[in-house]
Amino acid sequence: MANYRRSYLFRLGSDPVCSLWTGYGPLETPADHVDQQGARWSGAGELVGIPALQALINGRAGRYTFGLSGVSAETMRLAMEDRATVEGAVLRIGYVDFDAAWQVARVVWEWLGIADVLTVDSSPSAEGRTRLIALSVASSDTRRSNPQLGFFTAADQNRRSPTDRFCDQVASISQRVTRRFGPK
Fold first, then answer.
1. Which of 40, 56, 71, 107 is deepest in the core (most CB within 10 A)?
2. Residue 96: which of 1, 178, 11 has the closest Cα?
3. Mean pLDDT across the chain, nearest whole number?
């Protein structure tokens, strides 16, 4: 039976770089194209919330919120101080698979996003005080300026120009069919 040992990495390219992983204690990873000298990751355990990420489909890119709960007052203070360096920073989500000796061979980067808004919240609760840091992130394709696909159908053309009849015969065109346009 194969052992499945995977942990996720959260790398925010702010100043300084924030490197968290979903395990406990520090983690050393080898050099790759993102971290040329390798990296040291701080363990966030169950504290870091990584939502289900999706790829760009049909021209629609997603926005996600990443949460870090149960943080100390000192961590909240640091988040407030570094808030200005977070906006526009590149966020990468990746994973590492561990071998039987719990060693990391390589980092696989799966998702790229642009950090937008960092919010901090501290509120009283039944157990004392609840502290939360949330980061709103847009997938890297959200800000792209590519237009939606256009189709040359009569209905699409009529929406643009109600009196234009240029695309009225498009439905009768298919592969290997020649259609003569213009006066008959």
1. 107
2. 11
3. 79
